[in-house]
């Protein structure tokens, strides 16, 4: 497994990885992936702005990703929002830790001073990973998620 900076060459594979995690309906805020065109636009913006996104690659396929994207508003421009996912079958092997550390380091080099995220309360493995990396719980959105008529809290975390 290798960690690589975002690239257009891996767009299709990145899109498949995102769609795979989305279909699990457990970890991401959407249950479907994105079109190749949407994925390419997203990746092009990241590359153009030298933002922070890294892929975990195994056998030339994206098996995980992590990005920290800066907020656009002037008063929040020092803040980045973290998103990540690991394809089923590759979790609990340290890949998330490597991706997260590499992406945080890059985001810091790019000038971000605060990183924030939201995670579903049931995703205890991710919460442990974030806490191990220095994130702290800053709040909870009660019943922030509703899927299949079931509610779940969303934990808000930050790293300063």
Key structural traits:
160 residues; alpha+beta; Aminopeptidase
CATH architecture: 3-Layer(aba) Sandwich
**Count of beta strands:** 7
Main β-sheet description: 7 strands, mixed
Structural domain tally: 1
Provide structural commentary.
Helix 1 packs across helix 2 (36-48). The protein has helices at 11-23, 36-48, 95-109, 124-132; strands at 2-5, 52-58, 61-70, 79-86, 114-120, 136-147, 150-159. The protein is built from four helices and seven strands; from the N terminus they run E-H-H-E-E-E-H-E-H-E-E. It has a seven-stranded mixed β-sheet. It is an alpha+beta fold. The chain has one domain: Aminopeptidase, CATH 3.40.630.30. This is N-acetyltransferase domain-containing protein.
Helix and strand layout, with pairings?
Elements: E1 2-5, H1 11-23, H2 36-48, E2 52-58, E3 61-70, E4 79-86, H3 95-109, E5 114-120, H4 124-132, E6 136-147, E7 150-159
Parallel strand pairs: 4-5
Antiparallel strand pairs: 1-2, 2-3, 3-4, 5-7, 6-7
Helix pairs in contact: 1-2
GO molecular function, one term: acyltransferase activity, transferring groups other than amino-acyl groups
Domain N-acetyltransferase: 13-160
Protein name: N-acetyltransferase domain-containing protein
């Amino acid at each position: 497994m290798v960690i690589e900076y975002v690239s257009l060459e891996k767009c299709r594979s990145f899109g498949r990885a995102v769609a795979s995690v989305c279909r699990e309906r457990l970890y991401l805020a959407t249950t479907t992936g994105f079109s190749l065109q949407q994925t390419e636009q997203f990746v092009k913006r990241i590359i153009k702005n030298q933002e922070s996104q890294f892929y975990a690659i195994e056998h030339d396929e994206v098996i995980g990703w992590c990005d920290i994207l800066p907020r656009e508003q002037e008063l929040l421009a020092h803040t980045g929002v973290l998103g990540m996912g690991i394809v089923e079958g590759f979790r609990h092997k340290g890949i998330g830790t490597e991706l997260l550390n590499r992406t945080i380091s890059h985001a810091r080099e790019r000038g971000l001073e605060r990183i924030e995220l939201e995670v579903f309360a049931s995703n205890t493995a991710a919460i442990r990973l974030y806490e191990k990396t220095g994130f702290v719980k800053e709040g909870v959105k009660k019943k922030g998620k509703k899927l299949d008529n079931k509610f779940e809290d969303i934990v808000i975390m930050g790293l300063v």
